[in-house]
């Protein structure tokens, strides 16, 4: 269910019986892509990217791996026809079916690529 949040006032959103404040500062776009989240030196969580913004993303949760909000992890985002994005992610929401992340550390080259993709998505949604 898409939710459009006001840029001036947080909205309340109910997701799977939970209420949280929507504090998004950048628009999010539904997009097709895959992610790989390093949860330990020998284990990754992988799945689909559900939506993407300049500040973060909503990811499909594909396992019951022990991950917690407030932790940082290495992240790779892959989109067809684009170089992979690599950086650190802060887990801000961990639910039974979704993971909300905020980009924590991304080098300038990856940030420029992400910015270009977001700009293309913005133009496509006008």
Question: Can you give keywords for this protein?
Answer:
126 residues; mainly beta; Thrombin, subunit H; six-stranded antiparallel beta barrel; two-stranded antiparallel sheet; 9 strands; 13% helix; globular; disordered N terminus
Instruction: Kindly estimate the percentage of residues that lie in beta strands according to DSSP.
Output: over 45%
Mean of the pLDDT scores? 79
* Rg result: 14 Å
CATH architecture: Beta Barrel
Count of distinct strands: 9
Number of helices: 1
Please indicate the count of domains. Answer: 1
Amino-to-carboxy terminus distance: 20 Å
Write the layout of secondary structure elements.
Blueprint: E1 11-15, E2 18-22, E3 29-30, E4 34-40, E5 43-52, E6 56-60, E7 72-78, E8 85-94, E9 98-105, H1 108-124
Antiparallel strand pairs: 1-2, 3-5, 4-5, 4-7, 5-6, 6-9, 7-8, 8-9
């Amino acid at each position: 269910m898409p939710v459009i949040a006001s840029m001036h006032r947080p909205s309340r959103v109910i997701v799977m019986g939970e209420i949280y404040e929507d504090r998004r500062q950048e628009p999010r776009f539904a997009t097709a892509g895959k992610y790989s989240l390093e949860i330990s030196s020998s284990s990754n969580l992988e799945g689909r990217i559900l939506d993407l913004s300049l500040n973060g993303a909503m990811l499909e949760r594909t396992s019951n791996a022990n991950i917690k909000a407030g932790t940082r992890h290495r992240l790779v985002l892959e989109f067809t026809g684009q170089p992979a994005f690599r950086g650190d992610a802060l887990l801000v929401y961990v639910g039974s079916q979704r993971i909300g992340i905020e980009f924590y550390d991304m080098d300038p080259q990856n940030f420029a690529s992400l910015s270009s993709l977001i700009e293309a998505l913005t133009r496509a949604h006008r």
